[in-house]
Amino acid sequence: MAIAARTPVETVHVISDPAFHVLVVLDMADGGLSEADRQLIAAGRVLANVGGGAVCALPLGGDGDFGPTGGDRVMSALLEDERAYDPEGRTAAVLAAITALSPRHVVFAETPDGGDIA
Fold first, then answer.
1. What pTM did the predictor assign?
2. Which residues, in sequence order, are CB contacts of 83 under 8 Å at separation 6+?
3. CA of 98: how far to CAs of 10, 36, 75, 91, 108, in Å?
């Protein structure tokens, strides 16, 4: 008996009226979504699913397609140089996002960049 391989299905989450927000701060060290960034979005999705929340990604160094990874929204961080080491600028971007969203949770990567701004 042959077993057919299944094609992975990408799920795009749309939460039009969220009960709360989960802010996921992405390093995007190489300019795109890393495995660690994808894991952060997944962790944010777990937190959001508990009570009708929305995952809001804040990329600090690139761009990506966040919908298929579990993100609902994307905020822009206005950084002078996304690739430069600038913990003060990145912290200001995170604080602006926190002020705008009042998220229930903020998720950072356990990386040197994530640790500097957490």
1. 0.78
2. 31, 61
3. 28, 21, 11, 10, 13
